[in-house]
């Protein structure tokens, strides 16, 4: 089989660029869990500033960002309200229950975006018999929803309901900057209503490892206890943080290119007979498409694409997901789309 | 306000009869957690026989029966598949996550009854990212579904899917004998496909305290460790078990009367303008009815009923739930229905 | 083998007396988890009064009293400071870790009683690396310590250290009234420094089932959530609570007799060649004795005693534990001691 | 205050060397959680080979290695037997209880090393009341014990007791290679009896981040589920693994130099009046010393040392701990010792 040359599997596949590698190799470092790594410290300051929070903590993955936030906000028996497609519900190994003893009440949102009214209905009545509603979690952008951008007004109305009922608010901002670039709204505006928020460095931003979680100083102090407990406290992690600082300077604006490429890809393949794609949902760098009408299964199409050197993953029997990122050029998009046309 | 004379709030409200009290007062007892209470031992033997299992353990509540079963079947990170209306999801304080670290994947069943196909779709794919599907839980009868009886064939097809995927099967049989009497199918037939099953003594059977959990000898041995850990190991519990033995002898057949009363009540109130009741779902001793069209809220109606000495609880803004049981006569039913007609 | 006529295995073996059974059989009852059981309510009021706390909750066992208190006081990662012989560490199935995620730091006390200085040394320094010291637990009387009474001054000095470090204080008062009677100090004095306290109804007090946990109104409200979650919420539990009310009226003063019997037994067997008993530690109703010098193992002696109709349990290779209670008369003590003399 | 030039705080303070940084910058990388990072894969193969196990997994910290092993071996209610000075008990934030629901039964070993007989005594009897003994954990070298090397025969006799009682065996080999070099015994011999073992890359081996956990293929498959759940699954982690491969080639043999330096330091300061050091325990790169007789507290001495540019941490009121590593030369040792002589 030909090697994969065009990897649309996920934006987590991004490789560090030579310039990013150079920044990492030259980074001044120290013991980050003693607060002595200057590069990690700098990254945390920058992220706190970007998200408008008092403090931030560097962690080895986005999953750990989510799970630590949940551990800090929730006690055993508490319940989290989020979308049925949420990463914390579907792709973190059941960690909210396993680590925090917290349940999840899933809402039936639209492409991963739910409404204030749905939150209202999902809040438990006062009763010792029920789980205790405690946290609302918003995923920006909504990954399994199709890279959907949460509109600022929706966020604000959801936040208002949460506040009224003394619920905490957490943003899983894995792809926060895709929303920032797609909507032209600065990060701080999106994150303002949240008690905690994080974004991933290793997805569209192109870093090899890590995410940064931000919140109040008290929240981050508690998060540090969990960072130690879960084994997320590292040593000379400035090597990794240096990539983050580089990415925040050089890789945010260029996300617009990923969005243009996703759009191009979606529009191109929408013309292929048998492929169905909801163009209105392609807002950022993710394109879900349905291949039922081709007579081939999603896995079959994924396998055939590999022989063209193209990797696009099947997410279920009928659907595939393509994700654009900094290793994907406009030409790659055209090549991938043509391969798809030949197959279907 | 007049005292409540007709208590349709729940079948948990049943009071021990004089004959049951006498049986309790005369019960031979011993230290049950050392296996030396003859009355508890006898009850466990009878329940094991009734449910067709190797062994059984007496516990202070149905919630503990469910939660111990989940603790034995699941490890942290595992996922339970059940109906969105399930007691374990809505009315046990988030205990599956809090005590076992287990998540719940809720299915959208019909009146609390889901299909084999829905189970199939709810099973997670093989992936280290997801929770691990581990247990299917069936509630017989489905309380918040309206006292619905799970048909034997539905149980068997659900069990087949579970077996195919190496999932364990648990029956929350809180009102198992209501199903047995309503359908004329013996308990053993319903429980045969399950790894664990329990039924409640303190609901329709009229005992003051307790439930009995049954399963294989190995399962019950593990359940005993959790009984100790959760504080369910008691001492001279034969006092309580004596009520259970009495109820199994005298209070099962009479559930038919509760079902007739529920049916009468449902048919009567279905005629009241503004009240809506899905008669086809009234299979056992529970009647949910909607009062939207009366112009009154459920709470308002519940409050007005109290002045007639009738207690029927509001379960949300528009619905109330009436439950018949051994302290409710046909006359009580007629009185309650008339009160409702006067109010609406 | 002859039946056991003299059961010194534990004071949990006490059987309800005819008068207690009568009180139970006649008790007015209701749904205790809805706050409607008048007998349970009365018992909780009496216990709150006796212990000088705002509120109390009835539970099916002492283990549940301890574990609920720990669940309320601790969050995952917290640490409990207590004696190495403590019931919560040795005899509750690892529940503090299993249910609360709390660790235990064991102190090497003297006969189950530790000092303020030991607590001071057991408190963790401020550091994100360590567990978080959170709760000090005192067991009155200290069961595996030999039924030792915690002196009031020791309690007060331990409490002072705990307060200085913002630690919560819990009393496992399983045999609190044995201390009250032995020392002539009222319960309220012992319990005053504690945030939570419980005592057992089913040990020396002679009830079949249950313990009562007391604390501030806010503490008890939280305890109720855990009572539901663990399955300790019962229905017409007044049947059991009636025994508790009876015992509080009739079975406290008579504990003095159990203490005299334990003393008699200890003094008698101290004379038997090969048996060693630390007479100065026999303060209440528990007598540990060492049989190493008899040349027989503790289990062998326990087995031989059974043929005399006497039950005394071996607690390890060399030691046995005898516990006096309301089913044990002075004659029984003499018979048991004589049997022991014949055997050794 | 003068900057720290001689950092004896911990071997975790080691900075990556230029050659190590170069290896990292040039590492081929991929998505490690999809099994596609060639450098991570290579590191895992090398570690599996070195430790004689079927498989290995790369993790962001030693704490995560320990905690994942515990999560895999233990279920809630299980108990771990280890030394009272163990890292898992004292320096991982109470994670065994918080994440696994497991308790720890601490043994009073000698400098962190316990005996087979102590393990035997620490195993719980068969009883539903107690925690369930499940895992024995050995720390090689014993950090808080003073860098003590576990003798091979002690390991083997401890393992035999564990096997006899069906307990699992885990080695916290944070400084395994210090033992290997000090004793001249190859890693594989030490690790042979263990079900799971890990060593740290970021201590004496000089890497910035990470540890590697090894065991059977089935154990590592389970460990991967927990790696996802805890947020230890990274992306292009080959950057970090490259440092590990470099260290395994270049930084093992040189640990002998760290041991000579520790020895020199210990012998030098043993001569200083008021300083007490147990020379026989200085087997590797860690030197604990007592300063009680100087009339100064440990913190005072630590502070004074800083003004000489020397960092040695106080571990309690009377003791300090100095740790040698690859950034510490023989001259540094002499300078530090002289500073100490001037201060005391
Ligand atoms: Ca990347
Ligand atoms: Ca989209
Ligand atoms: Ca009842
Ligand atoms: Ca004693
Ligand atoms: Ca009793
Ligand atoms: Ca290092």
TrEMBL record, chains A, B, C, D:
Taxonomic superkingdom: Bacteria
UniProt KW Lyase keyword: yes
Residues annotated with N6-(pyridoxal phosphate)lysine modification: 203
Any one GO biological process: glycine biosynthetic process
Cofactor dependency: pyridoxal 5'-phosphate
InterPro entries the UniProt entry points to: ArAA_b-elim_lyase/Thr_aldolase, Low_specificity_L-TA-like, PyrdxlP-dep_Trfase, PyrdxlP-dep_Trfase_major, PyrdxlP-dep_Trfase_small
Keywords: Lyase, Pyridoxal phosphate
Name under which the protein is recorded: Threonine aldolase
Organism per entry: Nitrosococcus halophilus (strain Nc4)
Lineage: Bacteria, Pseudomonadati, Pseudomonadota, Gammaproteobacteria, Chromatiales
């Amino acid at each position: 089989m030909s090697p994969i040359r065009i990897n649309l599997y996920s934006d987590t596949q991004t490789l560090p660029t030579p310039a990013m590698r150079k920044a990492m190799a030259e980074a001044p470092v120290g013991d980050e869990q003693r607060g002595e790594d200057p590069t990690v410290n700098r990254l945390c300051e920058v992220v706190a500033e970007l998200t408008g929070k008092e403090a931030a903590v560097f962690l080895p993955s986005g999953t750990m960002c989510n799970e630590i936030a949940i551990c800090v906000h929730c006690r055993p028996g508490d319940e989290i309200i989020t979308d049925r497609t949420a990463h914390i519900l579907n792709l973190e190994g059941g960690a909210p229950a396993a680590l925090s003893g917290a349940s999840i009440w899933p809402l039936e949102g639209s492409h991963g975006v739910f409404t204030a009214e749905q939150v209202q209905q999902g809040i438990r009545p006062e009763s010792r018999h029920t789980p205790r509603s405690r946290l609302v979690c918003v995923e920006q952008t909504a990954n399994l929803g199709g890279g959907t951008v949460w509109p600022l007004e929706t966020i604000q109305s959801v936040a208002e309901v949460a506040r009224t009922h003394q619920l905490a608010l957490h943003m899983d901002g894995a792809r926060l900057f895709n929303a920032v670039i797609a909507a032209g709204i600065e990060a701080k505006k999106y994150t303002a209503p949240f008690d905690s928020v994080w974004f991933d460095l290793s997805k569209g931003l192109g870093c090899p490892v890590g995410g940064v979680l931000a919140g109040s100083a008290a929240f981050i102090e508690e998060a540090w206890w969990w960072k130690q407990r879960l084994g997320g406290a590292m040593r000379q992690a400035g090597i990794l943080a240096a990539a983050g600082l580089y990415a925040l300077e050089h890789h945010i604006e260029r996300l617009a290119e990923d969005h243009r490429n996703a759009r191009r890809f979606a529009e191109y393949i929408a013309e292929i007979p048998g492929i169905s794609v909801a163009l209105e949902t392609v807002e950022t760098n993710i394109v879900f498409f349905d291949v039922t009408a081709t007579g081939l299964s999603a896995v079959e199409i994924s396998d055939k694409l590999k022989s063209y050197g193209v990797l696009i993953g099947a997410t279920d029997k009928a659907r595939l997901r393509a994700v654009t990122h900094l290793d994907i050029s406009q030409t790659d998009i055209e090549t991938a789309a043509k391969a798809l046309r030949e197959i279907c």
